[in-house]
Amino acid sequence: MPTSYGRPRQSIRVVPLGPHWRGDGLLVAEVPNDEGSLEGLRHLEGGVAFGESLGTALRRAFREETGLDVDIVGAPLVMENLFEHNGVCGHEVIFAAEERLPDGAFARQTRIDFRENDGNRLRGALGAACRP
After folding, report:
1. How many Å apart are CA 76 and CA 105, to the nearest integer?
2. Residues 97, 42, 57, 21, CA torsion sign
3. Which letter, b or e, does each residue of 24-43 get, where b requires 16 or more Cβ atoms within 10 Å of its Cβ?
4. Domain ranges across the chain
5. Which of 126, 122, 93 is nearest to 22 (CA)?
6. 72-96: buried (b, 16+ CB within 10 Å) or exposed (e) per residue?
7. How many CB atoms are closer than 10 A to CB 127?
8. What is the pLDDT of residues 7-54, one digit of tens each?
9. Alpha carbons 14 and 90: distance in angstroms, whole number
10. What's the chain's Rg over C-alpha atoms?
11. Which 3-state string (H, E, C) describes 88-126?
């Protein structure tokens, strides 16, 4: 039975986003389509629970997906995203704040396996491997 990956909810979603750069490459996750083939790439992200601060949400989301504790660097950039994906309208408010990985984390890796908090296994890419 096909799984519906990436279908937006019909509500406003608050998204904490912590982009991680290595040189001019960016840590991203592969997004599968309903058949499991690669559809696109996205940042590692999470959600914000009621009463949870942005910093706490970013650190929790990254720890859940990668097992690593990160530091948040600087103030967030706030963006609004109104979009359509797979025929469904979505609405997000994104709080993007730079984060710093522990020294040596993923140092020699370009492919990274991780797990979302719903249990789905995803594959990530870091650095040159994530460039189109």
Report:
1. 23
2. negative
3. ebbbbbbebeeeeeebeeeb
4. 12-130
5. 126
6. beeebeeeeeeeeeeeeebebebbb
7. 17
8. 666 788 999 988 887 777 788 888 888 888 888 888 878 889 999 999
9. 11
10. 15
11. EEEEEEEEEEEEECCCCCCCCCCEEEEECCCCCEEEEEC
Helices vs strands, H then E, count in the chain = 1, 9
- pLDDT tens-place string over residues 97-110: 988 888 888 878 77
Task: Count CA within 13 A, CB hemisphere, residue 87.
Answer: 1
Which helix (H) or strand (E) element contains residue 1?
A: none
What is 12-130's CATH superfamily? Nucleoside Triphosphate Pyrophosphohydrolase (3.90.79.10)
State the DSSP code for 7: P
Can you read off the two tokens belonging to residue 132? 């189109």
Alpha-carbon gap, residue 57 to 63, rounded angstroms: 10
